[in-house]
Structure formats: C-alpha cells, structure tokens
Amino acid sequence: MDDNQLMARLAAGETAALEELILRHRGAALQQARSILKDHALAEDMVQEAFARVYLLRHKYRPDFAFTTYLRVLVRNLCIDQLRRRKMPDDVSPPAPADSAEAAYWQKERRSRLWNELRALDQTDQALLTGYALEGRSYRELAQATGLSLPTVKIRLHRIRKRLRDKECDDP
Q1: Rounded to the nearest 10 degrees, what angle do helices 3-11 and 16-37 cross at?
Q2: How far apart are CA 98 and CA 104, in angstroms?
Q3: What CA–CA distance (Å, rounded) separates 146 from 86?
Q4: b (16+ CB within 10 A) / e for 129-162
Q5: Please, are residues 117 and 167 in contact by the beta-carbon 8 Å criterion?
Q6: Half-sphere exposure of 101 (CA within 13 A, CB side)
Q7: Residue 37: which residues within 8 A CB-CB, separation 6 or more?
Q8: 71, 54 contact by CB (below 8 A)
Q9: Could you tell me how many helices (H) and strands (E) the chain has, helices first?
Q10: What are phi and psi of 113, to 5 degrees?
Q11: Cα(first)–Cα(last) distance of the chain, in Å?
Q12: Which of 58, 126, 142, 143 has the fewest CB atoms within 10 Å around its CB?
C-alpha cells in the first residue's frame, strides 16, 4: 500500500495508517531535522510535531504530491520556525545610535518611508510578503493560498523586495 492510500485510510479514521507512515518515514525525517537543527533532542521533538500535524491535518491532505515531499516541507518549516524562535532574543536589538541629530532625523525619515511603502502595498502583496518573510511559507504554498501562478508569486515577491530595498536606501 502506498503513502497516499495510507493517508486516505488515516483520514477515514484508521490510526494504524499513521503508525505505518511513522515506521516508513521517521528515520528520514529525523535525519533531515538533525541536519537543520544540529541538535538530536530538538530534532526528535520537531519530527514528533510533524507527525502530530500529519494527524491533525489528515483531512486537508491532498495527494497531488508525494507524501514524502509533504512531510519534508512540514519538517523543514518546523525546524526553521524553531531556529527563528531560538535566534529572536539575540537578533532583536534597538537600532544603532545615530552619530548626530541630522543622522538621527534621516534614519527616522527612511524608516518612516519604508513603513509607508509597506502600508501602500495592496492586500495580495502584503499577504505574499507576510507569508514569505514572516511565516516562512514557500512560493508554492503562497501560490496555492492566493490562487496566483508560481511564476507570478516569484515575480511579485521579487518586485516587492526590490521596491522596499530601493525605498530604504533612498536619501532625499
């Protein structure tokens, strides 16, 4: 029986199907998580969380792609989220003090223009940027969520980032 059939059985309430999926794919998922996190215990937690999500999202699973791809994406996203949470306190620091009142003014002005640009983005572009930059979603996931084609998502995100970079670097 293949993985998609097992997922269909799991969605129908057969928990033995989940056990079979875990037996088949736990080793590869653990290896992937360890390679990302470099921490065996944390990798174990992320794999356990990934399989918990497989169970919780069993009714939403679409067999359009291989189960192994689905699981790899789940594990990768969980690991990346974990790394971000781990780094947050160290990375969050106040902006460097300005050398002069004039420099402080221009720094504040640049930040203000950047925020205005973010607010000026249309709803779809805001959703794309938030999904990609803050939630760590893939281009494919964003395309599915917004109903846009994959190339359109890539192009729009590229243009958004370029526009924001240009605004941030502009000096009046």
Answers
A1: 120
A2: 5
A3: 30
A4: bebbeeebbebebbbeebebeeebbeebbeebee
A5: yes
A6: 0
A7: 43, 46, 79, 82, 83
A8: yes
A9: 8, 0
A10: -65, -40
A11: 65
A12: 126
Whole-number Å distance between alpha carbons of 10 and 17: 5
Query: How buried is residue 37: exposed, middle or buried, by Cβ count under 10 Å (0-12/13-18/19+)?
Result: buried
Q: Are 140 and 151 in contact (CB under 8 A)?
A: no
CB neighbour list of residue 32: distance below 8 Å, 6 or more residues apart: 72, 75, 76, 79
- The pTM for the full model equals 0.51
pLDDT in tens, 58-112: 998 888 889 999 999 999 999 998 888 876 544 445 555 556 777 777 777 777 7
Please tell me the total number of residues recorded for the chain in this structure: 172
Q: Sorting pLDDT into bands at 50, 70 and 90, what band is 138?
A: confident
